[in-house]
């Protein structure tokens, strides 16, 4: 009596992980996401480990989650995984006010972002 199960949006050799409402601007997060696009998973993890960007820690957690999803949920080989997509979306923006001179207020915007990482298994040649 329930509705039919939705079709899987990804291919059979792909797995993804999504991190929502990360407290960083999409522009800054996209700088880190672009570092790992198209790279092998081991290389991407090494780059994120030694990156000086604060948000690289959260990107690394999301990448590790995508790897675990590929291994446990879809039975993919971890050694042949590649980061096929890493894209950033805008989330909410908190509006705050900062006191300024002569009783005025300056607007402070605190943006949030969504991060989606898709890993794909490639067959070795």
UniProtKB/TrEMBL annotation:
Claim: rRNA-binding is one of the keywords in the record: yes
One annotated GO molecular function: rRNA binding
Keyword rRNA-binding carried by entry: yes
PROSITE patterns tied to this protein: RIBOSOMAL_L22
GO biological process, one term: translation
Tree of life domain: Bacteria
CC per GO annotation: cytosolic large ribosomal subunit
SUPFAM superfamilies referenced in this protein's UniProt entry, alphabetically: Ribosomal protein L22 (SSF54843)
Keyword annotations: Ribonucleoprotein, Ribosomal protein, RNA-binding, rRNA-binding
InterPro entries xrefs: Ribosomal_uL22, Ribosomal_uL22_bac/chlpt-type, Ribosomal_uL22_bac/org-type, Ribosomal_uL22_CS, Ribosomal_uL22_sf
HAMAP family: Ribosomal_uL22_B
Family per record: Belongs to the universal ribosomal protein uL22 family.
NCBIfam families per UniProt: rplV_bact (TIGR01044)
Stated role: The globular domain of the protein is located near the polypeptide exit tunnel on the outside of the subunit, while an extended beta-hairpin is found that lines the wall of the exit tunnel in the center of the 70S ribosome.
Subunit structure: Part of the 50S ribosomal subunit.
Entry-linked PANTHER family: CHLOROPLAST 50S RIBOSOMAL PROTEIN L22-RELATED, LARGE RIBOSOMAL SUBUNIT PROTEIN UL22M
UniProt protein name: Large ribosomal subunit protein uL22
Organism annotation: Prosthecodimorpha hirschii
């Amino acid at each position: 009596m329930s509705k039919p199960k939705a079709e899987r949006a990804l291919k059979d050799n792909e797995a993804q992980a999504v991190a929502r409402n990360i407290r960083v601007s999409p522009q800054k997060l996209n700088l880190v996401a672009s570092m790992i696009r198209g790279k092998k998973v081991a290389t991407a993890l090494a780059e994120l480990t030694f990156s000086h960007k604060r948000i690289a820690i959260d990107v690394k957690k999301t990448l590790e989650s995508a790897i675990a999803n590929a291994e446990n949920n879809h039975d993919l080989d971890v050694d042949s995984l590649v980061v096929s997509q890493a894209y950033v979306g805008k989330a909410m923006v908190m509006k705050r006010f900062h006191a300024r001179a002569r009783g005025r207020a300056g607007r402070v915007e605190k943006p949030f972002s969504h991060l989606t990482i898709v890993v794909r298994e490639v067959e070795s040649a």
